[in-house]
Here is the input.
Amino acid sequence: MLELQHICYDVEQDGEDKGILRDIDLTIDERFVAITGPNGGGKSTLAKIIAGIYTPTSGRILLDGEDITGLDITQRARLGVSYGFQQPPRFKGLRVRDLLALAAGSEKLTREEGCQYLTRVGLCAADYIDREVDGSLSGGELKRIEIAMIMARGTKLSVFDEPEAGIDLWSFSNLIQVFEHLHEKINGSILIISHQERILNIADRIIVLADGQVRSDGGREEILPQLLGEAPSVCSALSDKVK
Here is the structure.
């Protein structure tokens, strides 16, 4: 269970503090939660705060009752938090199979096991398992490898920041299948930042974040129709239409 207690995050702009997140108060224990909303609404900032990349200006973060507010991304990873970047980093000198073994926490990860993860994310395993994770890989390839790593970890909380970005050449339906498989495999929660209707459509819960605040929060059956225009009063909080 993830608890966000009165989370605020300010940045200095033109000599003044600007509130990016304002009093975010959420408890997340569902298997699959999607956070959506307009660009600039604070979604990616919230994801980075959950992962430990940013530290909130005020408020507390609890994971299974333990206060993790002061822990960094490495310390949170040890407690079972995974984070998928919008633009995954490159690791010159490391091969894909090395990263998968590190993610799985096993030096004995077999080639066959590594290939299974790559195949599931739509990559030809034989072509990628021994490749170096460097500039020769496209953004979309890196994104899929990163998703395979998170699958290999199977952590209690997996956070994905717009995982659909950069994978135009990969069938979007395959991405949905990956998340459905991950949803079935793990005993924890998957938290996805996304505008994509097809991702929102498989979420147990949808949270709408706009202007740094939670504007709507509820089950898919309640929130998705509102986002698609059936409830203009809610949709007016958004500047971007869900795609």
Summary: The first strand starts at residue 2 and ends at 13. The chain is about 35% helix and 30% strand.
